[in-house]
Design brief:
Blueprint: E1 4-6, E2 12-18, H1 23-38, E3 43-48, H2 53-56, E4 66-71, E5 74-80, H3 85-95, E6 97-99, H4 107-120
Parallel strand pairs: 2-3
Antiparallel strand pairs: 1-6, 2-4, 4-5
Amino acid sequence: MMSSVAVASQSVLVVCLCAEWCGVCRDYRSRFDEVKARFPGVEFLWIDVEDEADLLHPLDIDNFPTLLVGVGDEPRFLGPLTPQIETLDRLIRAQMQVEVMVKAPDALQVGLLARIRQAKGLSPSATGPLT
């Protein structure tokens, strides 16, 4: 059984994992920024998988664009996404709902989310950046 309530006290982070050489990624950047404007309370990051390979290790990204969505310390989504505005918008709205489930989060994804938040100075709470 699941229950859903809107996220209020935890920060939402949307990370696009792409590569500069990828034409799909270059085309997707403006769409990603357009969706960013729809969610002023959400933190959006664009990470080049080659420039920041150490941050992403041991994760190997082969499909672009790949998105990571985290709410607080919990990764909610990690995977490739079709590069359309509506798809990203729906994904963010869906992941902003708290779903109480029995399944434990994947340790690799939890570690990745924590490393990105730490490297970029972002707090898992909605109160602001790390100090």
